């Protein structure tokens, strides 16, 4: 699975972003668990998921800041 593009993330609604963030965090937990037990096959996926989480959190933060300045 490839990393999520920033344009795809920006196109999502707030609910979709929160759902995506929750799914990514679950995947990150599972990958960490697999690494600890020695069952992981794609170590690079850990890095991709971590960066996708950062991308989603960045967009959520940008939207929160822009809403705060408009209010």
TrEMBL record:
Record has Ribonucleoprotein as a keyword: yes
UniProt entry keywords in alphabetical sequence: Ribonucleoprotein, Ribosomal protein
Gene Ontology MF terms in the entry: structural constituent of ribosome
Xref: SUPFAM superfamilies: Ribosomal protein L29 (L29p)
Superkingdom, taxonomy of origin: Bacteria
CDD domains: Ribosomal_L29_HIP
This protein's record includes keyword Nucleus: no
GO cellular component terms listed in the entry, alphabetical order: cytosolic large ribosomal subunit
Gene3D superfamilies from the UniProt entry: 1.10.287.310
Any Gene Ontology biological process: translation
Family as reported in the entry's similarity comment: Belongs to the universal ribosomal protein uL29 family.
NCBIfam families for this protein: L29 (TIGR00012)
PANTHER family referenced in this protein's UniProt entry, alphabetically: 60S RIBOSOMAL PROTEIN L35/50S RIBOSOMAL PROTEIN L29, LARGE RIBOSOMAL SUBUNIT PROTEIN UL29C
Protein name: Large ribosomal subunit protein uL29
């Amino acid at each position: 699975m490839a990393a999520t593009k920033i344009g795809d993330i920006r196109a999502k609604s707030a609910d979709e972003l929160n759902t995506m963030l929750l799914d990514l965090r679950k995947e990150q937990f599972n990958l960490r668990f697999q690494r600890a037990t020695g069952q992981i096959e794609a170590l690079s996926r850990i890095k991709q998921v971590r960066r996708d989480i950062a991308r989603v959190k960045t967009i959520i933060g940008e939207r929160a800041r822009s809403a705060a300045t408009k209010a």
